[in-house]
Amino acid sequence: MLLLPPGITNAVTATVRVPMNIAFVKYWGKADERRMLPLNDSVSANLDDLYAESTIILTTDAEADGVIVNEVPMPVGEGTRFAKVFAEFRRMIAGTDHAQAKILVVSTTSFPVKAGLASSAAGFAAIAYGLGKVGELNDAQVARLARLGSGSACRSLYPGFVHWDSSKTGDEDTFVVPVESGIEFASTLFAAVFVIDNKQKTVGSSEGMKRSVQTSNFLKYRVQEVVPHHVNLIKEAVSTADFITFADVTMRESNSLHAVCLDSLPPLSYLNETSFAMINAVHDFNSTPAGVTAAYTFDAGPNAVVLAQLTNAQRLISHFSRLPWAKFVFETKDEQLKEVLNVQEENNHGDLPEIRVILTKVGKGPAVVP
Amino acid sequence: MLLLPPGITNAVTATVRVPMNIAFVKYWGKADERRMLPLNDSVSANLDDLYAESTIILTTDAEADGVIVNEVPMPVGEGTRFAKVFAEFRRMIAGTDHAQAKILVVSTTSFPVKAGLASSAAGFAAIAYGLGKVGELNDAQVARLARLGSGSACRSLYPGFVHWDSSKTGDEDTFVVPVESGIEFASTLFAAVFVIDNKQKTVGSSEGMKRSVQTSNFLKYRVQEVVPHHVNLIKEAVSTADFITFADVTMRESNSLHAVCLDSLPPLSYLNETSFAMINAVHDFNSTPAGVTAAYTFDAGPNAVVLAQLTNAQRLISHFSRLPWAKFVFETKDEQLKEVLNVQEENNHGDLPEIRVILTKVGKGPAVVP
């Protein structure tokens, strides 16, 4: 049962859980900053166990809007992304009983916010999904609210593989659509999220995208030629459960994104030497007679997300456990993946740097927490 | 006076000195592996004090061809680049007095061979230039011999800025041409070569180029659109002594090359974290009110070459001397640059890693050593 904050008695509430998503065809560059429209399509799936859980409270008992994330109050004043989302929500519910209500959000994430994982995308997806419940919004409105908060948040709203279609720009358009057989294919996969420490201060995605749009020659070509090709290939790979093509496109897409970053001026460098060691480790894993059985992908940060089929989980964990340059510390909340972890061998890894690895299944959709 | 090796009495000899060059518009990708034709044009200048000095001996007193580089005998058998160059040289001088002579080469480089600098390009340029002297070859023949040994070697054969034109593919074509006012502009510049240690084992340029040609989407676009635009811009910048445009294109070209490398599968990563720290240091230097007064460029390795006008030498050295993450140890053979080094301040840099920096003027051509 939800405990309302002190002084709040009359309220409409919803508590929701929404996972963060990882893109296999990458979003990099905005066509419209204000409306948060992307320059190109992207394709993603959710990482089930990396989620934001948010309670949304609409009440006239509060004096002002408020957002608390992992017990820390966030600024919600003009110019913040929260204010932008709340203003649009109020436009959507104008004329209803709740039009005068204040909005309170209490949110927690199941993963470290400062680990360079996309916590704000999951957070805004949860806020949008929760506002949709309390405000009785339709799917297109919820998706648009999520996108306003953090572009890629809109991809967290559906189970399976989802396709964010950049050609759908109207306010009532359905711009996030499920990929055919995306739930079935996702159910055969898992992800290993490698939390890699980043000593260098990096440029945030929004600022980085802007720089690439302004200075990179390759971004234009990527948007016009590379991404449409990759979107077709990966949708076909998902719908036919063709892991090899899925992995090939996923790795090329990650490389393509970081190549565009490097082609910017000043260049954007999100990968560090550990990231490249991870890339090499995956290519080595794929060079065995078993063939291409894993794929890496990196967002705007050094953390690797490695995708593989559940049937290859033990082999992948053994491979990383044997690497001589780090001690990988695996953890998971998933019962099936917990069993797989039993293969971990004891190694003389005492002196090596530790890298935390979160194992999770993929493709779960958002849910209302009862 | 040249001392001939023991047993060699009847010989034709030449001793030459040829500097290594650094490209500002980069060569990456071969159109023809056998003839060493490039996929795209490139533009470079020589680094005066980083040179190979080679003595070429044609003699019938020797039993076999031989090459000694920095006192180490090199393999010259079938399949080596030396054998390829010597065979082509013999075809060129067929029917002359020297057609039956063996070829001996004794070469030294003025810089460390294993520092990841382009020692083989300077070496092959010197061999080709020396063979041209003893074999009385024309310029096109010398350039073709140099290219056969190491593609970019052909760019070392002229003073000032040179343009390697990929459209000139005939055997008698002049494919390396001076850039208008290139000697004048070069005379206003100097280069700082930062010798950065590379812990990672990298893929050699030839193999790396092949991988990019086979797998990178961006390489095609680079060859067709980006490079022609950059060649025009940089030729114009050189001929009008427009340092700002020269620097802008130089940095974009370096980034573009490394972006193509990253867009390859598996990705090629030649820059390390020190390289990126160097890139940031140059952008910081260019962010002062003095404006864009330096440019970095990186070949297929972590070493930065920073170009600047001689009038900014003191300011550049001061800037690097003050950086808190390394102790830069400057050295130069050039009298004018030696004076500039007096500005180096004593710093508490005792515990920092040392980075060796070679200062040199640019644009000197090859020469016969008397």
From TrEMBL, chains A, B:
PANTHER family: DIPHOSPHOMEVALONATE DECARBOXYLASE (PTHR10977). This is Diphosphomevalonate decarboxylase. The lineage of its organism: Eukaryota, Metazoa, Ecdysozoa, Nematoda, Chromadorea. Pfam families: MDD_C, MVD-like_N. It catalyses: (R)-5-diphosphomevalonate + ATP = isopentenyl diphosphate + ADP + phosphate + CO2. Residues 19-173 form the Diphosphomevalonate decarboxylase-like N-terminal domain. Gene3D superfamilies: 3.30.230.10, GHMP kinase, C-terminal domain. GO terms for cellular component: cytosol. Residues 192-369 form the Mvd1 C-terminal domain. Pathway: Steroid biosynthesis; cholesterol biosynthesis. It comes from Panagrellus redivivus. Belongs to the diphosphomevalonate decarboxylase family.
